[in-house]
Amino acid sequence: MGIANIINTAGGGGGGGSEIITNLVNSVDGAGLRLANQGYISCADVSANRFGTNDFSVEFVLSQETSAINADIFISNLNGSNQAVDAAVIRWDVIQNDNIQLVFTNSGATETAYNFGYDPAPDLNEPTHYLVSADRSGNAVLYRNGAEIASVSIAASGSANVGNSGQPTVIGSPVNNFGVTGNVYRFRTYSKALSSDEAKNVFDRADVPTALVSNLLLDLDCAYANPTQSTVIQDRGPNNQDGTLNGTITQTNVIKQLNSTSARIGTTAATTAATPADGEIIAGSVTAKTGTTGGITIDASGQTDTTARFELKADRPSADQDACDIRFYNNNAQPIAVIAAVKSSSANDTDGKLDFYTSNAKRLTIDSTGQALFSGSKVTVNTDGTVDWGNAADAGRLTWDTNDAKVRGVAGKNLKLGANNTDYVTIDTTGLASFSNGITVSGGILALTDPSGGALPVLTISSGAITITSSVHQVEVESGTTDDLITINGGTVGAIVMLRSQTNGKTIVVKDQASGGNFLLNGDFSMASNHDTITLLKTGTYWQEISRSDNA
Fold first, then answer.
1. CA dihedral 176, 180, 181, 184 (to 10 degrees)
2. pLDDT at residue 222, rounded to an integer
3. Is residue 217, in this structure, part of any structural domain at all?
4. Shared domain check, 399 and 295
5. Within this chain, do residues 181 and 279 fall inside the same structural domain, yes or no?
6. How far is 46 from 43, CA to CA, in rounded Å?
7. What's the angle, vertex CA 134, arms to CA 131 and CA 140, rounded to 5?
8. Phi-psi domain of 207 (left: phi exceeds 0; alpha: psi -120 through 50; beta: other)
């Protein structure tokens, strides 16, 4: 935070000497973005940042230059037709009331406006801190430079679902003369209605107070963005809702950039004692330099203290050993993340491997053959080429043999297949496959068999009905020796089922168009033998007879 000094050791005119360049590095120092007419920042919709029906707060530091027709400062949801839909809008309403408003809109862009009664005209061309704190069941409070200046009840819009349409959040407006024009230095949103003490706290300090970090939704770094280099503003909040610059936007107090053949940064003894060569940057005892054939080296290999946090190094320690490391260190100088490709010390050895570390532990090794070996993760690539995923006791497995590729559940576990984040097929531990949404077979069914050799599943009639779970069933009477079957539950349109009687001497009467039934038959059909069968096709809500066979 604050002022950074860079010493340009090249000097002027190639004659040596040094120049101190002072850089403005954040919004506290006055660096920000100037929005011209129709200039605006668009942040893609992130569901975690939507206000919904919850309390919220919007904080911004603004120096507005002139009043527009209606100066929209913040629109939480702006659709492709430039309409605020399912949105919360903060606006300087110049036409009607000449005061700051909080506006709620519905899906049809109909507005419900709440006037704070504060005219911001005295704030023109002055960087001013504003905070709108919205208690959805009570009042919205407007704070200016940490002090409350207005309050209005918004309880009537407590049920408005802000963000329901999933449109981008916009600062400014793409509509001619309808957006704020001036400098934006800070923009944040929170998932709570900030109290008066919290409003004073965020005004007094540049960073987000620790107590509000968990409530932070959006935090645009208006100082970091440089429209001459990038059209994206970084979101320092937790949900990565980066902003995209649109229209005419320029940077206020542009961060100056060093233009030199070499540089020395810092005031430590190691820095001041060193003289950077052409193409080098020295910061502390770390040297960044370009090679004669291209590339860049950041060399902290001489560091033994805890200040060496990052290392990118490509060197040749000896004639028979190659190394290429990218290392990230913690405060105890321990590697918390390492990407390394190393060849062992044997002159003829070419077993180079690439290691990936997190939390000071190796997580992945890619060996010289390309085999990936994982450890401590939910995915394990085994040395035999099989892949396990999930917890050790709940893993699935990708495997193979000479002729086949296979997907399996491990011992004691079912295998489920699905689409659209929904399971549709379950293969249980006995090998039985259950399809929850039917089967379409474009090439025809070659055979319906019971591979185990066991009996076909039996359904017992209950109040005249059965519920099918397979394409072939045996049917048993509910009681006595004769029973009517009037309804089949289950199945989808196009399903085919074959039924047969379960027990010789007990008669199943399949009833044609019985009251409350769903059969369309060529008359009733009595199955008195377990050799009698009837085959049916589901058409709409009815099961229509395909064929019958009386083999008693």
1. -140
2. 78
3. yes
4. no
5. no
6. 8
7. 85
8. beta
Residue found under tokens 């058409």: 539
Assigned domain for 115 exists = yes
pLDDT tens track for 6-40: 333 333 333 333 333 333 233 344 567 888 888 89
Average pLDDT score over residue span 460-485: 91
Amino acid found at 16 = G
The position carrying tokens 């007990």 is 506
Burial class (CB in 10 A: 0-12, 13-18, 19+), 515: exposed
Answer whether residue 442 is part of any domain.
Answer: no
Pairing of strands 19-24, 139-144: unpaired
Asked if 249 contacts 179 with a C-beta cutoff of 8 angstroms, the reply is no
* Nearest residue to 506 via CA among 484, 486, 527, 490: 527
Query: 78 — alpha (psi -120 to 50), left (phi > 0) or beta?
Result: beta
Same domain, 40 and 147: yes
Residues 140 and 193 in one domain: yes
The amino acid occupying position 473 is: H
Domain extent for 168: 28-252
Residue 367's identity, in one-letter code, is D
DSSP H helices in 108-239: 196-204
Helix (H, G, I), strand (E, B) or coil at 494: coil
Which tens digits make up the pLDDT trace of 193-206? 999 999 999 998 87
- In 3D space, the residue among 406, 355, 353 whose CA is nearest the CA of residue 384 turns out to be 406
Contact yes or no for 77/84 (Cβ under 8 A): yes
How would you class 291 by CB atoms within 10 Å of its CB: exposed for 0-12, middle for 13-18, buried for 19 or more?
Answer: exposed
Considering the domain architecture, whether residues 63 and 177 belong to the same structural domain is answered as yes
- Total structural domains in the chain? 4
**Listed residue (452, 475, 456) closest to 464, CA to CA:** 475
Burial of 535: CB neighbours in 10 Å, binned 0-12, 13-18, 19+: middle
* CATH number of the domain encompassing residue 115: 2.60.120.200
Regarding whether 97 and 72 lie in a shared domain, the answer is yes
Q: Which of 218, 252, 286 is the last residue of a domain?
A: 252
The letter for the amino acid at 189 is T
Detail the DSSP E strand segments found in 139-214: 139-144, 147-153, 169-172, 182-190
Adjacent-strand bridge partners of 381: 387
- What sign has the CA pseudo-torsion 316, 320, 324, 328? negative
Residue type for position 331: N
Residue pLDDT, tens place only, 299-315: 655 555 544 445 555 54
Residue 439 falls inside a structural domain: no
**Average pLDDT of span 279-295:** 61
